């Protein structure tokens, strides 16, 4: 703790700006991880396997109830939209799936791009602190008295080094978190794209099969 306190004292004003960026980034990372891992995610293959069996058995009500068991997950929302329009024709099914996807997908990727921006801001603030520290150090060589010159030079260099280091300490994990969260969100979106197309084709095939059997 003493080392951290000393770093903030030596780094000055810039350290607190970078700390503010780190708090915002951490809040976004935690919020997105909770939503992507616990709320939006689901075992897509197992879920769609159950839905497919129910659709093939013409038990659409049970299939919709299966979706309602995971009301917050992203894929069931899209699947439910298609199931509720199963008897309305091919165009209605596709429109319902597309409409639900357009509503769900932006929610999955929300705030994740901001992490890259925050990482860049932390790096730039560290660089700006470095420049300010070097300016202070060079100014000490010109204006300070012989007794104070060494102390002011050391202070300027400390500011430069600490702000650079802290900027990178914040930026690197933030970029890593962006990479992980982007992968999680892409997986969920890919599952929606893949399974919504399969569901749409299945519902259309079932509808055509039902009409053919009725004829």
Strand and helix layout:
Blueprint: H1 2-11, H2 13-39, H3 44-56, H4 60-68, H5 74-83, H6 90-108, H7 112-143, H8 146-214
Helix pairs in contact: 1-8, 2-7, 2-8, 3-4, 3-8, 4-5, 5-6, 5-8, 6-8, 7-8
Outline the structure in words:
This protein has 215 residues and is mainly α. The protein has helices at residues 2-11, 13-39, 44-56, 60-68, 74-83, 90-108, 112-143, 146-214. The longest helix is centred in the C-terminal third of the chain and has 69 residues, at 146-214. It is rod-shaped. Mean pLDDT is 87; it is low at 211-215.
Count all strands and give the number.
0
What is the distance, rounded to the nearest whole angstrom, between the alpha carbons of the first and last residues? 80 Å
Q: Give the fraction of residues assigned to helices.
A: over 70%
Order of helices and strands: HHHHHHHH
Structural classification: mainly alpha
Mean pLDDT: 87
Main β-sheet, in a few words?
A: none
The geometry reads as rod-shaped
Counted by DSSP, the helix tally is 8
**CA gyration radius, whole angstroms:** 28 Å
- List the uncertain runs: 211-215
Share of β-strand residues: under 5%
